[in-house]
Fold this sequence. Notes:
GO terms for molecular function: ATP binding; ATP hydrolysis activity. This protein is an alpha/beta fold. Among the domains are: 154 residues, P-loop containing nucleotide triphosphate hydrolases (Rossmann fold); 113 residues, CBS-domain (Roll), CATH 3.10.580. The chain has 18 helices and 17 strands. Helix 15 packs antiparallel against helix 16. The relative contact order is 0.10.
Amino acid sequence: MAPPVLRVSGLTKVFGTREQEALRLAGEGLGRDEIHRRTGSTLAVHDVSFTVERGELFVVMGLSGSGKSTLVRLLNRLIEPSAGTVEVEGRDLRALDDAALRTVRNEKISMVFQHFALLPHRTVRENAAYALKVRGAGAAEQRERADWALETVGLLERADARPDELSGGMRQRVGLARALAADSEVLLMDEPFSALDPLIRRDMQDLLERLQAELTKTIVFITHDLNEAMRLGDRILMLKDGRTVQLGTGPEIISAPADDYVADFTSDVDRTRVLTAGDLLREPRMTARLGDGCGDVLRALGAAEANGVHVLDGDGRIAGVARDDLLARALQEGRTAIGPRELVADHATIAADRPVVEFVHLVGRHVVPLGVVDTEGRLLGVVPRAAVLDALSAVPVRGRRP
Ligand SMILES: Nc1ncnc2c1ncn2[C@@H]1O[C@H](COP(=O)(O)OP(=O)(O)O)[C@@H](O)[C@H]1O
Ligand SMILES: [Mg+2]
């Protein structure tokens, strides 16, 4: 199997002169403040490990000062780690000489900064082509890749403009175009949208989601905003004082915050937009098949204290719902096996990836719980009303945010 695009192990960075002593104290479990008090050095990042798979949008989230920028700079060795390793496609960055490292930065991992340096006297197109020019690409290739990237971010008409003729949001898109034109494996984005006003920020998030889906880019995205993290991240690494407090998908973090610190953050998140039908999915308590005996199913319903059951066809698709009253009538009328006449359409279905906000009105409306189906209509599981209530009411203990 191919190695992950990025593998980070035990990554640690101390700023200051008493590095070894700070590392020793960190190893003993002392926190950043205490270490700073004793050594004057800052433990910016401590013992962070994770892998990022190809095509993943990996978010690093934490408050200001939590070590995000330090971490992202360690990822392409803009700064040297005090301990730990970074591997890009299985290659340890420490093993690279300067030339090889430059190549990795140009071709494998490129950085989109919050205030990335657009060249003020160059056109938008030249700015977009910048990484290619550095790489020594020919003029034709530069132009072709830059124009493709500008078109992708919706800025091709402004290719001949200068950066100062553009709005902040447009300049940010030029930065994104530059990273896309470079066509590197991994994009490192350090709070790229933080300085944008909310509407433009929303647009940029949409654009990034679209690009990531279309181009299957591997992205490491830094933010201090948990809603942004939840919106964009396949997985989220939560940092606090340089250490990992939790690593998981948005729904995992929301449903099981690792500690009060994370719980406090997640209490602000709109859970109905983060949790999906798939997250709330339960095994159905019972299902029936076409052809099952009406009497058997009726007895099973009685035992389960249910009034209806999903009836599946031979492929596991929902054929309909058998209700207890109709099964009883079928028996009275001498029909012993469940057939089309015993079925009613008293149910609703939803796809596993849909957020709660889109199906909450369908829950508890029918004799059977909401069915979660795949694209073929096969029943994957159900979302009973209790599952929705649990998920939405599981508001973690609120502490005061530090
Ligand atoms: N070059 C540096 N020298 C000394 N301390 C630094 C340096 N860069 C960052 N720090 C410190 O490391 C900690 C983490 O900073 P940073 O990585 O910038 O956090 P974030 O990006 O999450 O705001 C902070 O305490 C910060 O003051
Ligand atoms: Mg930062």
